[in-house]
């Protein structure tokens, strides 16, 4: 996705961050990046300087009051980045550097004014375009009183502006007694947060708390730090993504199944496949995926639960070659790990499938696992709602898989999300003549008509088969209904049939 370029904005080296900032950070201003230790300030600041060096040949200066040059270089190296050509000015308090010789020593009681002078001298000498000051909390510690501290920072701000520097000031929020320290002096305030979870990777998110005279995307955005990159996932606003699309229904490629759903699944709608584990939900979804590929449309399958190998095996058993389609780029398969993935990242992946690859069919397998990406988060259903609205606005055929708990007996729905979907397909086991078989029925469809009947379905190596309507059920509302009608309409093996 292209980031709008603007002459008075400076790119940060993180494309999706620039998207939220509507082009980047305003030039020649002071921007605050605040967050507790470990939230990613240094990493983002390094990216900012590296982008300047590599993409536009701008000179960068990193003023470090807490970390040594070698510590910084090591953390850059852990990402495969080099700080060559970026000046690191190390000003570490005396007590912290007993065994270091290179850096400029100054006694702890030296006043803030002296430190500021050293910083300004270095800026004067180097004449950088981009400056990082890490961190404000160290300066706060040096200042004896609040007023002098504020005055010194104000002087620094003026000095930087005169020298036309664009500056990122980092603040790790220590020694701050809860005040919104110096926010009023800053052009932009960006907050970083890290939320530890009981299991899985920590969740990071960021928010632009203010940016003077410029638009930006408000609210929290998930982000991640991987080895080699900072990835920001702009939150989704469905209303901003409306497109014209041709209405119509897509076929499953199985005639009797299309009859059951009332000629197919409508574009721009969401269908939920509900049923116990092992009943064939993923296989049914694959059937629509395979048919999309056959029509020449791109389909994207997001799997939290199954490995590609399992899905491949299942598809081969259905007479569909998804490996071939994947290789030819007609199909997207993404494995999502619920203990590592944030909802924001997942939504971003789906958007890439739709906007970049033009996916017309999207499968989310399963909703249960998606919801478990953030068990403590109430906002998740709202976010899901936003995603589905977006997909519907894009004319995508969305298939959600919802696994019910229990296989037989009292089958339970873990969450009631049927209100979010336009159609609900119920799949379950039933008993007939001492055998367990599978039934499929459409229990809700918002657009158009559908059958109210129950049909049998079965996965044969030759493909999926859906039988004629079945009457004579007992216990339809129980976990496993039983069929007591004539055996004739039941599906039989091809071999048996001959
Ligand atoms: N090479 C790396 N690969 C993946 N994650 C990393 C890597 N290096 C650092 N991190 C993550 O980034 C975080 C440190 O970010 P950093 O920018 O130093 O934070 P801050 O400056 O806000 O204290 C750590 O919590 C760590 O999880
Ligand atoms: Mg840091």
What would your notes on this structure say?
The protein is an alpha/beta fold and 498 residues long. The protein folds into 2 domains: 9-235, P-loop containing nucleotide triphosphate hydrolases (Rossmann fold); 240-497, 3-Layer(aba) Sandwich (Rossmann fold). 29% of the residues lie in helices and 27% in strands. A hairpin with a 7-residue loop joins strand 23 (473-474) and strand 24 (482-483). The mean pLDDT is 86. Magnesium ion binds at residues 41-42, 134.
Bound molecules: adenosine-5'-diphosphate, magnesium ion
Please state roughly what percent of the residues sit in beta strands, choosing from under 5%, 5-15%, 15-25%, 25-35%, 35-45% or over 45%: 25-35%
What about the largest sheet?
11 strands, mixed
What's the CATH superfamily of the largest domain, by name? P-loop containing nucleotide triphosphate hydrolases
Give the number of DSSP strands.
24
CATH class of the largest domain: Alpha Beta
CATH topology assignment of the largest domain = Rossmann fold
Number of structural domains: 2
- Spatial gap, N to C terminus: 56 Å
- Helix amount, in percent? 25-40%
Mean pLDDT: 86
Shape: elongated
Tell me the radius of gyration: 29 Å
Corresponding CATH architecture of the largest domain: 3-Layer(aba) Sandwich
Low-pLDDT runs:
none
Helical stretch tally: 14
* Class computed from helices, strands and strand pairing: alpha/beta
